[in-house]
Amino acid sequence: MKKFASLLLALVMCLCCLTTAALAERAPVAKDDLKIGFIFLHDENSTYDLNFITAAKAACEKLGIAYETKTNIPEGQECYDAAAELADAGCDIIFADSFGHESYMIQAALEFPEVEFCHATGTKAHTENLPNYHNAFATIYEGRYLAGVAAGMKLNEMIDAGTITADQAKIGYVGAYPYAEVKSGYTSFFLGARSVCPSATMEVTFTGSWYDETLEKEGAEKLIQGGCKLISQHADSLGAPTACENAGVPNVSYNGSTQAACPNTYIISSRINWAPYYEYAIKAVMDGTEIATDWTGTLATGSVVLTDLNTTVAAEGTAEAIAAATEKLEKGELHVFDCSTFTVKGETLTSSMADVDTDPEFKKDTEVVENGYFNDGNPVTKLIIAEYLQELKDAGVDTLILGCTHYPLLKKMIGDFMGDEVHLVDSGKVTAQAAAAALDDLGLLNGKKAGGTARYFVSDTPDNFDELAHTFLGEYAGGTVERIAIETY
To answer: Which single residue of 65, 141, 178, 364 could bond 353 by disulfide (Cβ 3.0 to 4.6 Å)?
Structure first.
C-alpha cells in the first residue's frame, strides 16, 4: 500500500526565500503609528540609489506609511550615526542600501534592539544571529544574463550587417570594484551575450568607486578606443552611457533606463525592484510577524526586472529572445552559471567551495557546484526544505502533496531533495482538473475555448495580484479580483 503524505510546510514563503531562525516576538504596529527610515549611499543622481529611492517611495506611498530618508551617507561611522538618529526619531524599521553600510547597521541593531534593521546586499545576518537584523538581495545575475542576451543580439545584428566581423564582437564592461558581486554580474552578462553570440569576447575595467562620473566615462571611452563595440556597466553614474551616446556605441545600462539621456545608443537595463521587499518587511512590522533573516527576491517575486526595451536601437527579435530565456530560467531549464558553458583556466569546473558562513579566515565551507552548475538556488531555502521534509523523506513516502499555492514555485528544489522516486502532486492543478470533471458530470462545463470573462477570488490582499498572476497562471490576461473571508466558509 502506498504511503501518502500531505505537505503542509509551516513557512510563510510570500514568494521569497525565508530562514527559520527564531526571532523575537513583536507586537503589531498600527499603520498610523508606524515610521520608516531609509539610508542611501548617494542621492537621486546615482542610478543605484535612485532605484532604491524610487522603490522606497512607491512602497511607503502604497501602504500609506510615513517615512524619513538620509541621503549621501558614506560607508563609515556616518551610517551608524544616521541609523541612530532615525531610531531616536521613532523609526520602527530602518533600511540601508549599500554593502559597506553593514557593520554600522549591525552596530545600530545591537544598540536599538526594539528597532528592525534591514540591510540590502549584505551577508552577515545569518551569522550575527541578531533577531532585529536582516539581509536582503535578489538573483540579479538572472537579470544581467537577460540583458546580456540583448547585447548578444545586437552584436549579431552588427555582424549580419557587415558593420563588424565576428571576431570583432568585443564587449567593454565598466565595473566599480573587483568584488564578488561585480564579478558575478559581468560574468552572467557575458554568458548571456555568448548564449546568442558565440564569438563575443569581453574586456573589463574598474574605476575604484561606486559613483564617479568622470572615471566611468573615461573607462568607457578607453574601452571604445580599444575596439569594444558595445558597453555595459556595474557603476552608478551616467558616465559610461554618456560616453556611448557621444561615440555612437550601443550601451546596456544598469539600475534603470538611460533612454532619455541616451536615446540613440541605449538598449535595455536590468535592475532589482526593491519595492516587494520593502512592502514585505514593512507589513511584517505592522502585523508583528517575523522578517526573514535572509530574503532573496527572484524573477517570480517581481524583484528582478528589465526596463523597457529601446526598440529603435535593439536588434530585431530581442524581445522574443529575452522572453524565451526568461521562461527557461523560471522553469529551471536554464542555469546562468552552467559549467558546460565556460571553463576556468582552460578546464571545465566540476567542484568549487565557497565561504558562505563569512568567518574571519574566509574558510571555504560550502560546495556550490551541483549537477553541473553553480547553485543558483537560495541555500537558505534548501536548508528550510531539508528541515521540514527530512522526516517525510526518512519515512519513505512515495507521494507528496504540495498543499499551498506557493509550493509549486519550489517544486524543482523539493523534487531534488526528495528524489525522483517521490511523486509530487500540484494541489492547484489537480483541484482544477477535479473541478472540470465535476462540472462535466453535471453538464455545466463550458466547452467554449474563448470569449468568456474571468473573476478571481483570493484569501489574501489583492493588491499585488496583477504582478504575481503571470507567475501562477501563465496565461493571465486580467479580470476582476475580489478578496473573500475564507474563515466564513
So the answer is: 364
Confidence of residue 190 (pLDDT cuts 50, 70, 90): very high
In whole angstroms, give the CA distance from residue 102 to residue 120: 9
Q: Is 257 helix (H, G, I), strand (E, B) or coil?
A: coil
DSSP state of 195: H
pLDDT over 90 (residue 154):
yes
Within 8 A by CB and 6+ apart from 368, the residues are: 352, 353, 354, 374, 375
Rounded Cα distance between 175 and 178, Å, is 7
Q: Minimal CA–CA distance to 421: which of 392, 398, 440, 439?
A: 398
Condensed to tens digits (0 to 9), the pLDDT of residues 408-444 reads 767 767 887 888 789 989 887 788 888 888 998 998 8
CA distances from 117 to 58, 67, 120, 330, 449 (A): 19, 14, 10, 31, 51
Contact 226, 247 (CB under 8 A): no
Q: How many distinct helices (H) and strands (E) make up the chain?
A: 14, 21
Place of cell 567542484: 351
Burial of 41 (0-12, 13-18, 19+ CB in 10 A): buried
Q: Can you tell me the distance from the alpha carbon of 220 to that of 424, in angstroms, rounded to the nearest whole number? A: 50
- Name the nearest CA neighbour of 146 among 262, 206, 232, 51: 232
User: Grid coordinates standing for 297?
Assistant: 527576491
Hey, what's the cell of 148?
546580456
CA–CA separation, 173 and 157 (whole Å): 20
Q: How far apart are CA 314 and CA 399, in angstroms?
A: 47
Helix (H, G, I), strand (E, B) or coil at 292: coil
Q: Determine how β-strand 369-370 pairs with β-strand 373-374.
A: antiparallel
Cβ neighbours of residue 65 closer than 8 Å, sequence gap 6 or more = 31, 34, 35, 36, 282
The structure's pTM equals 0.73
Q: Residue 66: left if φ>0, alpha if ψ -120 to 50, beta else—which one?
A: beta
